[in-house]
Amino acid sequence: MSDSQANGPEANGMLEQRRPFFYPDSSSDTEEYRRDTEERRKRLSKRNGPCIRGRMPPKNQSPNVPTPSTSTQEPPRNGQKNQLMDDRITLVVDNTRFVVDPAQFTAHPNTMLGRMFSSGIEFTHPNERGEYEVAEGISATVFRAILEYYRGGTIRCPPTVSVQELREACDYLLVPFDANTVRCQNLRGLLHELSNEGARRQFESFLERLILPLMVESAQRGDRECHVVVLLDDDAVDWDEQYPPQMGDEYSQTVLSTPLYRFFKYIENRDVAKQVMKERGLKKIRLGVEGYPTYKEKVRKRPGGRAEVIYNYVQRPFIHMSWEKEEAKSRHVDFQCFKSKSVTNLAEATADPVIELEPLRAREEEVPEPPAEGAAEDDAQ
């Protein structure tokens, strides 16, 4: 037996510092140590719940919920990968291919691409490669920006693309174009397009509520055109029945609407209104500002006893439109009203024109003769 075994823990001070050592004879110390250990385990088990696999549960986890395993979901097998790839489709836009998931389009059924891949009707057929050629006339840069709407709900206008081009592409693909869906660095161009959209909706309302009833009234009288002058709500029109103002040949109608008057204050709104009326099938559209008589100022007597009435004129916008192709023209031509200028005698048509020589001879006689040379020398002397 070595000295360390004979002397016990007193000979090895390092071992005594690392772990406690109890003699077999000291049974009281061993029982107290076991009792303290068991009580400590019971207190810990009551506080934190049961341990799993000898490890303490995390602090932020409820005691009755087991610790989740760190293993992730099984990766898809080869068959599942092929199935995911088969669900994707290829779109060809401006000779550029886009591999997308059709589920992104079906989530927006009101758009054109959503209708193409959600309904049973085939709007387009794939080519020999199984690719779909869509969005004809739209550049690949614009289409890539519009695809962001199906992924995140917003469209960021590229710096190389004008806002008008993006707007036209959104209208073609039936994608909403508003302040909630479009992000653009060019605020002037964005606000201009938003103003055009707001002006279109506003004028369509004006056309249905205010202008269309006047057009129907003109059509019921047998007219083929309508001339509407927009007045303010507080404009007073007081014409003299005996001396009405000279309005010309056109029979004008008036509508009292201050909002419509303010609408036509901008030239851009007039262009939008003209485009809307063209889309509704109207012809001969004219928009502008003209003077309109409101009330009589005074009556002045002219020589001969004829009265001249002076009216007060205000500058107000007007709209003129027609629903006929030919305005104020008859499609029937009466040839009896025109004198024929055709030559019926073939001999006269082939003959040379007659030249009158007598007037030429008369003009020759009137030309004075130049003076003689001798006379000129006498005058010089």
TrEMBL record:
Record CDD domains: BTB_POZ_KCTD20-like
Residues spanning the signal sequence: none
Domain of life: Eukaryota
Gene Ontology biological process terms, A to Z: positive regulation of phosphorylation
Location of the protein in the cell: Cytoplasm
Region (Disordered) residue spans: 1-84, 358-381
Stretches with biased composition (Basic and acidic residues): 31-41
Keyword entries, A-Z: Cytoplasm
Domain BTB, residue spans: 87-190
Protein name (database record): BTB/POZ domain-containing protein 10
Feature: compositional bias, Polar residues: 59-83
Primary residence: cytoplasm
